[in-house]
């Protein structure tokens, strides 16, 4: 009966949630989702039938919500987002003309989007030191050239990004690296959710979301903290539409009142497409870096007003008394100064949480990409544990992922600090995998992604294999990264298209380009793991194939087999079904992956909820509170906290110069109206941001925005020039994507 009532509620029009009475939001500033369909149709000219098959027969390679074709497991409706439409061109474009690579001096002046548009990489290409460009070589020559550089495990590193990389590639790559005597294999999870991995593992015993997307719909409250799904996980907005229809309230904690989280037009839903949907009911503005002050203040209110679920806490957790004592010692003045919010605003969110019978807490890189990202996550976990919002319907902790390969990448063991299954790198765990695989596994953690760049810069690394990604765009201080890349004796770039880091000349070494297949091209199909822990099969899709492109699992295992021929029989696979069988043996909670073989096949490890009934996968079965100290943030007079934000892009792949939600161009410097008036800055004024230490600068143009005073935002990756490459969190080693800077108006 309840299910029938909910279905009727979803069908009924509800003007209370409408964003506008103007049909289709005419005149409102918002992305034109229907225009995106037109652009996608134009971009795949000549391959439209293949593009349609990718949309309807493949698993989405965009964000980590994980659709099968254009459907998912949460509701029986069409799911299709702009990110996936923009990726169609990459997945269907023809090969580039390799003669363009003979002299790359002209290509070096091109933007990344222009390089991608040249077409797919079709053949292995080699550039030696001093040469103007690349020449085509065969696969055997390429592999034989690279293999000798990978025999000393202490002198090379491997990095894999999450641009559609499936579980099979991650698993085979990390196994190959460990056969070569190294744990220096890392992936994009390092620079987005590694603090979540660390803090969740310590506090609840599992480094994944504890709930499912289904839990959003019908929850009393969803709290987004440093997260903007309207930009980064747009398919999620349909879930929020249905959640609002079911009576769910949405709160947002952020430095910027994101327009897409205020009002959103879901294009595939008639009511929302016509009238839009009001998403956020309660907005709480906090300073960049002030989240701990705000969250601890909310917890302090919960404790002082008797809204902690004391019985649940006593039965299912440990460490609460230490947390109670810690927040009691933090004054309201300290909490307000750090957070930028008032005591009353903290009380308001505490009231919402205290009155809610169920709640889901969602966060993303606004929380993690700080030097104290782990503590940010611990503060969120403390709130959830204090109310028992774990392990039951419509409740949970959700570190929402922005890319389809991030969750699986870490769980496959493509992680310098973790083995398959997320096990820490210890002697005991290394011996377990040595017994399983038949070769010695190193017992010391390897170099993380940022450590690899440091080692290359210091001359302590000889070779780097980069599968996808672009360190020049994703890491702080591009000039530092460029110098590091140039000092390597060998760089191997495995990718489907060109990127700017491939064009960095080596001072005294070789640069190899190896063409990879997309997930849709791999014989035997592949899998991805979504944010909700759903392992989803994506079959090979019939269509054109590019030159001599190979699956990455085959490239990595063949490199290792040639470097360690005595282990070749233990490294080579006959195909992806054999890799999935190996994954199932290595990662027990991935039980069932070996049986996935048809479109739509999936298994959700752990079921709908982790920690069911308050039983945690920790040694004592209890969740762990952790006291969180206030970070020592000081902002010198006249300076601002600057955060990097995402616009019309997927990862570092920028799709448009202008963001449809707020009109910001890529050079925009978002500033509050209060600060702009105080400094006499008008929209469009040219300004320079300079780090407080003076050595880094960014130039842009003013855009007034609903931002907390004292804070600025600039786009990533353009704003990376302002960031200090040495600032990282202590445990996860994530870079700090924020800076302290002054702002100066430039002459007209």
From TrEMBL:
<keyword id="KW-0408">Iron</keyword>
<dbReference type="InterPro" id="IPR050123">
    <property type="entry name" value="Prok_molybdopt-oxidoreductase"/>
</dbReference>
<keyword id="KW-0479">Metal-binding</keyword>
<dbReference type="InterPro" id="IPR006656">
    <property type="entry name" value="Mopterin_OxRdtase"/>
</dbReference>
<feature type="domain" description="Molybdopterin dinucleotide-binding">
    <location>
        <begin position="642"/>
        <end position="739"/>
    </location>
</feature>
<dbReference type="GO" id="GO:0008863">
    <property type="term" value="F:formate dehydrogenase (NAD+) activity"/>
</dbReference>
<dbReference type="InterPro" id="IPR010046">
    <property type="entry name" value="Mopterin_OxRdtse_a_bac"/>
</dbReference>
<dbReference type="InterPro" id="IPR006657">
    <property type="entry name" value="MoPterin_dinucl-bd_dom"/>
</dbReference>
<dbReference type="GO" id="GO:0016020">
    <property type="term" value="C:membrane"/>
</dbReference>
<dbReference type="Pfam" id="PF01568">
    <property type="entry name" value="Molydop_binding"/>
</dbReference>
<keyword id="KW-0411">Iron-sulfur</keyword>
<dbReference type="GO" id="GO:0043546">
    <property type="term" value="F:molybdopterin cofactor binding"/>
</dbReference>
<dbReference type="GO" id="GO:0030151">
    <property type="term" value="F:molybdenum ion binding"/>
</dbReference>
<dbReference type="InterPro" id="IPR009010">
    <property type="entry name" value="Asp_de-COase-like_dom_sf"/>
</dbReference>
<protein>
    <submittedName>
        <fullName>Formate dehydrogenase</fullName>
    </submittedName>
</protein>
<feature type="domain" description="Molybdopterin oxidoreductase">
    <location>
        <begin position="120"/>
        <end position="561"/>
    </location>
</feature>
<dbReference type="Pfam" id="PF00384">
    <property type="entry name" value="Molybdopterin"/>
</dbReference>
<dbReference type="GO" id="GO:0051539">
    <property type="term" value="F:4 iron, 4 sulfur cluster binding"/>
</dbReference>
